[in-house]
Inverse folding.
C-alpha cells in the first residue's frame, strides 16, 4: 500500500509556506513564496507542488476572510480584503483542478486551533479555543473535535469590550468597529497609543495592565459562552514577557470565581512551535 501524501499550504498575507508530508511528523519538503498577486503566487504554488509528485489530499490554512460555505460558488475564495488584488481570489479551486484530490480549506486561526486540539496545548479537552494576538486578532473554537462554523468563520477578534478606565482617549484602530478587541489590543493598536510594541515598553508601564485587561475580558466572555478546557493565546503580542500571567490574574478577578475552570490552568500559550502553520493545514485534511 502506498503511503498517502499531503500537500500543505499556509497562505499568509506576506508569504505562502508550502509543504509535502506523509504524516504530521514528516513534513518532507517546504518552501516559501512571496504573496504578490494571486496569479503569480498561486501559479508558483501549483508549479512547486507539481515538482513533488502525486498528492492524495491538500490542506490550506489561509488568511481571511474566506468563503467556507460548501454550497457557495465562491467556496475557498478570499472575501473582501484591504489587501490589494486578493479580494475574491480563488485559492482552493486551482488546487482542486490541478491535482484532482480533496482540498480542505479554513482560516489559519481555525487550522491552528485544530492542530493545538490534536497535538498541542488543547489535547484531551472537548472544548477549546485558540486566539492569535498580533498584527490582527483572530479566534477559533474546536467543540467536540470540530471547528465551530456558522454563516462564516467566527470573528472573535472583533468582540466589543468595556474600556479600561485609563484608556478612554484612544478611538481604537479597527476600520469597522473602532474599539473592538482587535482595535484595542492588536500590535498596531498598541503602537498607535504608545509608539512601540508592548515588549519594548518598560515592565511597569500601564500598557501591560491595559492590554491584559482586554485579553482577560476575552477569557471570561469565552468562559461564559464555551466553558472551554483551554484558551490558548498565540501571536506576537502574547509573546510579551509576563503578559500571560497578568491575563490569568485579571481574568480570575473579572470572573469572580463563577466559571468552571481556573484561568491559571485554562489560559495557556501554544504547545506547537515551528511548522505550527503547516500543522494547521495538515489538521484540516483530517476532516
Ligand atoms: Zn473590529
Amino acid at each position: 500500500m502506498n503511503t498517502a501524501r499531503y500537500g500543505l499550504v499556509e497562505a499568509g498575507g506576506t508569504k505562502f509556506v508550502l509543504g509535502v508530508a506523509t504524516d504530521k511528523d514528516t513534513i518532507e519538503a517546504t518552501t516559501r513564496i512571496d504573496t504578490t498577486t494571486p496569479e503569480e503566487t498561486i501559479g508558483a504554488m501549483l508549479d512547486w507542488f507539481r515538482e513533488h509528485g502525486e498528492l492524495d489530499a491538500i490542506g490550506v490554512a489561509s488568511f481571511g476572510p474566506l468563503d467556507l460555505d460548501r454550497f457557495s460558488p465562491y467556496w475557498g475564495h478570499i472575501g473582501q480584503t484591504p489587501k490589494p488584488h486578493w479580494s475574491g481570489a480563488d485559492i482552493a479551486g486551482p488546487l482542486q483542478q490541478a491535482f484532482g484530490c480533496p482540498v480542505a480549506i479554513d482560516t489559519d486561526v481555525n487550522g491552528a486551533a485544530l492542530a493545538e486540539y490534536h497535538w498541542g496545548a488543547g489535547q484531551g479537552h472537548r472544548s477549546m479555543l485558540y486566539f492569535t494576538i498580533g498584527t490582527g486578532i483572530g479566534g477559533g473554537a474546536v467543540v467536540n473535535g470540530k471547528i465551530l462554523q456558522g454563516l462564516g468563520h467566527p470573528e472573535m477578534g472583533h468582540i466589543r469590550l468595556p474600556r479600561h478606565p485609563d484608556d478612554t482617549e484612544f478611538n481604537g484602530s479597527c476600520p469597522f468597529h473602532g474599539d473592538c478587541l482587535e482595535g484595542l489590543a492588536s500590535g498596531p493598536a498598541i503602537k498607535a497609543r504608545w509608539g512601540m510594541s508592548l515588549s519594548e515598553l518598560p515592565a511597569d508601564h500601564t500598557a501591560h495592565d491595559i492590554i491584559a485587561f482586554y485579553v482577560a475580558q476575552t477569557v471570561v466572555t469565552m468562559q461564559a459562552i464555551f466553558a472551554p478546557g483551554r484558551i490558548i493565546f498565540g501571536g506576537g503580542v502574547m509573546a510579551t514577557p509576563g503578559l500571560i500571567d497578568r491575563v490569568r490574574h485579571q481574568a480570575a478577578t473579572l470572573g469572580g470565581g463563577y466559571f468552571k475552570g481556573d484561568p491559571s490552568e485554562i489560559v495557556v500559550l501554544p504547545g506547537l512551535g515551528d511548522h505550527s502553520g503547516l500543522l494547521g493545514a495538515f489538521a484540516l485534511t483530517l476532516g
Remarks:
- The two ends are 22 Å apart (CA to CA).
- The chain has nine helices and ten strands.
- The longest helix spans residues 206-226.
- The CA atoms of residues 113 and 130 lie 5 Å apart.
